[in-house]
Design a protein that fits this description.
Number of strands of chain A: 18
CATH class of the largest domain in chain A: Alpha Beta
Helix content of chain A: 25-40%
Largest interface: A-B, 62 and 62 residues
Largest sheet of chain A: 12 strands, mixed
CATH topology of the largest domain in chain A: Dihydrodipicolinate Reductase, domain 2
Radius of gyration of chain A: 25 Å
Strand content of chain A: 25-35%
Distance between the termini of chain A: 49 Å
Number of helices of chain A: 15
CATH superfamily of the largest domain in chain A: Dihydrodipicolinate Reductase, domain 2
Structural class of chain A: alpha/beta
Oligomer: homodimer
Shape of chain A: elongated
Chain lengths: ~450, ~450
């Protein structure tokens, strides 16, 4: 292709933090390569960043034509900008910026999971009205292609389940606890030292919020119905102990923070919580900061995607992949929807109370005759049926540890039974309640 | 969306075998679902199948409007047909049909790996000339999205390695040999009984030809340069013995048929052969007919996709995914290239002779002093350096088995050294030569 035939696609970036650096570096260094591949040249013509320190870091030598500003409006109002790349994160003011871009007939690429999980529908409506689209592959699982496949190759299938390890920080912590026999606090500190967890406030990761956003987005796309973070049950990993890891291993399980979405006959269940999974399942071998997600469909049976779910390089690959998707058939005179919104259904959400799970329970009890009978009787009255049990001696005089794994039971019934157990004089404490997912 | 707003996309199918049945069933049963999702209705309006027995199996009740014929020309010449789905397989007459369809300005979707691996470039040229496209997600890895991701989300990255288990039949056979301690012949029979391997002539699978086609296609896309089956080194699994499986396991390895493509500084190497891989690597846990492929890139580091690489349901999901990709923005008046050909480079191919590998070698030797010194001396003269060795007793008097794993060595040098070893009086036979891939 001759150089004069190559059309230029103009990009305006809003936000110039960690990921934006990666995007800038990728586009700058691979400009010729991408032009050869798609016959279009990607040109960053504007950058808006309100932090003066970050503005200083914008490499000025790559293109002297880049207009740098502290005001997003400069990007949004420039009629030359074809694609706006929003990388400031959070809902406000990102929503305002993105909706203005779409209303101005610009395509948008974002890595903002918080924004898409909470306001995706509103943004899609504005995009559709203006015959443009918003792409957000990078908002879920970093460099792993999942939104694109769900919206294209897998679009004909009826997806009924998604199960994934979607947060790298918590997976790193659980891996350290399992492999190096560290405590939760020691592993969290290791994650912070590696830069995987925020030092000031790691709760977005360890309390499961990050995974909730991602699951809300994935479930919405997979089940064609809007699932918001408020619809997702959430439990973090802060209460997982070294003993839990140890007992789980003895029983053939690993503990992972899972994001699980299911669509059973049009009723959606979405939940993020630690889970015991079989030690020989592929998800059990996903270690450190790697992510993986299984997608189950009527036709495909199951597929799994695995890779780095975070980091500036992997994430920027997805951002630029979306830009390429838009650029490939870009036509200023005749824009169009690329994937579009696929939430055309309005399915019910099942509450966690009415969801059935298997459970792992660890409790300290008195070590004397009749204890098990009393506990079994409480379980029986609440429809909790026991699959397996192990007993461990403790250092406490006359004490023992009991570890149960139940059969499937409604979450509500399990929690009721635990309340009753706690009132038994023979039960000293119920230390751990963790769901068990057998996975297939 | 109101029904009258829904545009109809007309599909003509050529070939009505196993996969075509799946495609027909999927489109028929999910027509409304797909229409809601993409705002277009997929209508199969013509089917051409030359086998009268298969024509009888075409369900006539789904739509009385389907015109059935024994002549592909009836599909190709119908101006109402927007998308031609070619599912007859093989190069001839598929090439003729597909090129005619493209020349007539029709989009093409195919699952034909043989055709795309051998004649992809020619077909792309015709497609480009006519401003249409040919999509073939189903030609590689059945229901697992891999071509779409490589052409979109991963298009910005510089992919430098692909390693995959891309043939389900051979993976099933090797899994049975490893898990059930069956011989190769017993496992092949099991695969034939399950319908995974052809009874009459299983060689396309077990000799590695099927994997070669797939690797040629994946390497061409990943490395942006044409790789044909003739460029791919091939070795099947027919010479793998139960002893190899057993010795490999003892040394911590599994044996898998790998398809490996690499691009080292613009020189491509592509090869299909059995390999010892570390037993704790994720690829070692890919069992039975499942497939998995790792893609390594400068930005993504690595991603892996896993799923069912064959079967009518999984494969038809990819065929219809491609149809959806075309249909989503279909415009009769203004067609366009969707992904297009991305082989814009012309890279060199490295011969297997000049490729470096680690090797597993199993040989029967005389059990007497000085044997190892003689063998080591031959290895030394050919730059073969030994990483580890185990010795096993045999039933043969005065005989022993030696198992070596070498360090990296040029294939040429390794084979030269084996020729020399065979001439030593102390070496009774060199039974197995299998490459070892440490994988990272």
């Amino acid at each position: 292709m001759k150089d004069k035939d190559i059309k230029k696609i103009n990009i305006g970036m809003i936000g110039f933090g960690y990921i934006a650096h990666g995007v800038f570096e990728l586009i700058s260094s691979q400009k010729e390569y991408i032009a050869k591949k798609i016959g279009k040249q990607l040109d960053i013509i504007r950058i808006a960043e309100k932090d003066p320190d970050k503005i200083k870091k914008i490499p000025g030598d790559v293109s002297s034509n880049i207009k740098i500003s502290s005001d997003a409006a400069d990007v949004l109002s420039d009629p030359e900008v074809d694609i706006v790349v929003e990388l400031i994160g959070g809902i406000d003011p990102a929503f305002e910026f993105v909706s203005s871009a779409l209303a101005a007939g610009k395509y948008v690429v974002t890595a903002n999971k918080d924004l898409m999980a909470n306001r995706g529908r509103d943004l899609y409506r504005i995009a559709e009205k203006n015959n443009v689209d918003i792409l957000f592959e990078a908002s879920v699982l970093g460099g792993i292609p999942i939104i694109g496949p769900l919206k294209t190759t897998l679009a004909s299938d009826r997806i009924y389940k998604i199960v994934g390890i979607v947060n790298g920080t918590t997976n790193y912590i659980l891996t350290r606890m399992e492999k190096d026999s560290l405590s939760f606090d020691q592993s969290l500190k290791a994650a912070q030292d590696m830069g995987y967890a925020e030092k000031a406030n790691p709760s977005s990761d360890i309390e499961g919020y990050d995974a909730v956003y991602k699951l809300a987005i994935l479930s919405s796309i997979a089940f064609n119905s809007r699932v918001t973070p408020a619809n997702v049950y959430r439990e973090g990993i802060t209460r997982i102990t070294s003993s839990d890891i140890e007992f789980a291993r003895e029983m053939g399980y690993s503990i992972k923070l899972l994001a699980i979405g299911t669509d059973e006959d049009g009723v959606i269940s979405a939940r993020v919580h630690p889970s015991l999974i079989p030690g020989d399942h592929i998800l059990a071998s996903i270690e450190d900061v790697f992510n993986a997600v299984y997608v189950y469909g009527k036709y495909i049976d199951r597929i799994m995607s695995y890779g780095r779910g975070a980091g500036d390089r992997a994430t920027s690959s997805s951002v630029v992949g979306d830009i390429i998707n838009i650029a490939r058939n870009f036509d200023r005179e005749r824009k169009g929807i690329i994937y579009g919104c696929t939430c055309f259904e309005n399915k019910k959400i099942r509450s966690i109370d009415n969801t059935a799970s298997k459970f792992y329970l660890a409790m300290d009890v008195a070590d004397r005759p009749g204890v098990l009978a009393k506990i079994a009787s409480v379980f029986g009255r609440h429809d909790v049926s026991i699959n397996s049990m192990i007993q461990k001696q403790t250092d406490v005089p006359d004490g023992a540890k009991l570890i149960f794994i139940t059969h499937m039971v409604k979450n509500k019934d399990l929690y009721l039974s635990v309340e009753k157990l706690k009132k038994l004089d023979v039960v000293r404490s119920v230390n751990s309640i963790i769901r068990v997912e057998d996975l297939d």
